[in-house]
Amino acid sequence: xxxxxxxxxxxxxxxxxxxxxxxxxxxxxxxxxxxxxxxxxxxxxxxxxxxxxxxxxxxxxxxxxxxxxxxxxxxxxxxxxxxxxxxxxxxxxxxxxxxxxxxxxxxxxxxxxxxxxxxxxxxxxxxxxxxxxxxxxxxxxxxxxxxxxxxxxxxxxxxxxxxxxxxxxxxxxxxxxxxxxxxxxxxxxxxxxxxxxxxxxxxxxxxxxxxxxxxxxxxxxxxxxxxxxxxxxxxxxxxxxxxxxxxxxxxxxxxxxxxxxxxxxxxxxxxxxxxxxxxxxxxxxxxxxxxxxxxxxx
Length: 298
What we know:
Number of helices: 4
CATH class: Mainly Beta
Order of helices and strands: HEEEEHEEEEEHEEEEEEEH
Helix content: 10-25%
Structural class: alpha+beta
Strand content: over 45%
């Protein structure tokens, strides 16, 4: 009886192996078909776009201050500043610093004191180094990520992480978008690294319209995030819209909502274009895509 059982088991194993081999072949055919379909559908998509501006619409000394508004009141402020151009391991980079802090009143309930830094290549407009120093309530985090863009590897906590070509971080993506020659109906996909994970952000340029702010009218691109995916799974929640000026590519207005209940805005209240500016340009009702995403993740 044991011999028969073993023989039956052997036949069953052989049957299973044949079925598994057949399933793998079928999956390969399905995968090839899906890839062909995607390549056909995504012809207008600007995948992992290379910068189109040799002279970017920003320079050393540019400083932007945003008020983060929720429930009709100011919850905090975020400052972005291009500090300097330095040499980082043979790469000429912009050193960009972001400070995010809650107001004294909101700090009574939940205090945020974050400092983010990116070192953005002055020619390719992708990061070579990213730092995050976070103080959010009782949560603390200090992180440094080194990007080897040539080898498509990131180094974090002594470990190697594979990254897509021309990957961005949560700060550099805003400056990278400003270098693109945006066009109506264009779909842009940008790979973004967040520590251990690589996300794919898909944005669509829905068109242009004139936006009214306190200092006048501005022509703006309408940007709408379509999805934020991780290994094929959609992670984005809520709805967001951003209006990016057609000249300096500064965000003039951005709104986000979740479940139709919560909404927030990041409003630009001060802009200094560069070091030679004698006086800051102050405007109302203006924000930034990356800032808005950061605000809504809290």
